Structure formats: C-alpha cells, structure tokens
Amino acid sequence: MDPRPLIAVPARFAATTSALRHRAEVNARALIEAVWQAGGEPVSLHPHAPGGTVTPSEVAGRLARFDGVLLPGGGDVSPDRYGDRASHPSLDDVNAEQDGFDLGVARRALETGLPLLAVCRGLQIVNVARGGTLQQDMGPDREHRHLVHPVSLEPESAVAAATHTEKIDASCFHHQRVARLGAGLIVTARAADGTIEALELQDSLGWFAAVQWHPEDTAPRDAANQGLFDALVHAARRRVCG
Which residue among 12, 205, 208, 219 is least crowded, i.e. fewest CB within 10 A of its CB? Predict the structure, then answer.
C-alpha cells in the first residue's frame, strides 16, 4: 500500500478541553476524519510564532516534509493584520501567535504551489496574506452562524471540479467575511446575499481552494463536500508521485 500523503493542519489554541487538565492545541475531529477518509495522513502542527511573527525560513523548513496543507477554521483574525485600527466588540478568540503562524503557512503554500485547502478562517487568512481586508462583523441580520444555505459555484472553478456540482449546501459558522479582495485572488462562489464563499488564485502554482463554509460538517453524508478533501489529498499524492 502506498503511504498516505502528509497533510499539515495547523492546530488551534484552546483554553480548555474535556479530556485534558490544561490548555490545549486541537483540531476538529470531523476535519481530521475528512482528510483521513480522503486517503491523507493529517498531522497537527504547533502554531509557533513568538511575538506574533514567524520567519519565512522557519515556515519553509517546517513545511518541507509535507505534501499538502489544510488551513482550518478558528478565531477571528486580528484587525491590525489588515490595517484596521479599531476592533469590533464582537471579535472573538483573537491570538497574535495563531495569526502569525497561519499567515506564514498560507504565504509559503501559495508561493510554492503546495496543495492548499483553506476553510472558514483559513479563507480569511489567505485573503489577508494576499493584502486583502475583512468586514469585522456582518451584523445580526446577515451573519452566517449555525446555518446551512445554498452556495453557487463558478462552473470552471476548482471548487466546482472537486465537488462535481455548481450549487452546494454549505454549513456556515462565521460573522466576518471578505471585504477587499487580496492580490491575484478570484471569487469562485457566492451566497445569495453576495457573501464571498470561495476564493482561488490566478495562475496558481499548485492546487488551491479556499471556502468560507465548513465542508467537514457534512462531509460524512455529502459526497460533494467530501470532494474538497479528496481533491486536496489527490493533489498532494500527485505531488509525491511527480
């Protein structure tokens, strides 16, 4: 049996977990299971960025052994990362070290063509890494929390190819969204209210897709959403095999 491609998944900092006595680093089990189901070997990475910064050489060294990257959901990105001085009172779970590491990983993957799937916060990280901005809060009438809604996909996009559809039921949990688009990024999916739901990169060096929803939520019963993880692992395997 061929070895599973190694998929790096930056961990999320957690104040507490039910199984541990102390603070923890975690990843959602549904996310890990989706990578495993796709044939990948998910590996959690310690998001090490002292003082909120990490050197490109350190990120390059840590990602060198991996065949793909999955940037998961998590807390809000600090507004100062995209030039906003004021912070909306709804901001939650902001962490400078988490931001610094995730931004470094996103930049390295995009610059080198390392296969990358970015989910929810991951999409927002990619947009900020490319110089884009975020709307800090969508407002109580427009937020996408605990919500499954249809999303329309661009027919020729990577997300449409991975999911084998042009409309998908998206499980969402976010109160922020893309404001100004980052350099080189293109919109490949939107919700009915205009919210950007997927991003891809013009002239990408490798397979890349970013989705604002959580495909892992419904992947066990929805082949279309599982298809995003399948596409990531397939691209990672191709990178290994050449």
Answer: 205
Q: Domain 6-241 falls in which CATH fold? A: Rossmann fold (3.40.50)
pTM, 2 dp: 0.95
Give the pLDDT score at 139: 85
- Residue 78's pLDDT band (cuts 50, 70, 90): very high
pLDDT band at 157 (very low <50, low <70, confident <90, very high): very high
On whether the CB atoms of residues 221 and 188 are closer than 8 A, the answer is no
Active-site residue, from 174, 175, 214, 234: 214
Dist CA 169 CA 150 (whole Å): 5
Q: Is 197 a catalytic residue?
A: no
**Active-site residue 48, yes or no?**
no
Task: Write down the domain spans for the chain.
Answer: 6-241
Query: Residue 86 contacts by C-beta under 8 Å, 6 or more apart in sequence?
Result: 79
Indicate whether 1 pLDDT > 70.
no
Instruction: Give the residue ranges of DSSP H helices in 38-189.
Output: 56-63, 96-112, 121-129, 158-163
Q: Choose the catalytic residue: 143, 197, 200, 216.
A: 216
Q: Per DSSP, what are the bridge partners of residue 150?
A: 169
Instruction: Tell me what the pLDDT averaged over the chain comes to.
Output: 93
CB-based contacts of 195: which residues, under 8 Å, 6+ apart?
Answer: 138, 142, 144, 177, 212
**Rounded to an integer, what distance in angstroms lies between the CA atom of residue 32 and that of residue 167?**
25
Residue 175 catalytic? Answer: no
**Exposed/middle/buried for residue 163 (C-beta within 10 Å: 0-12, 13-18, 19+):** buried
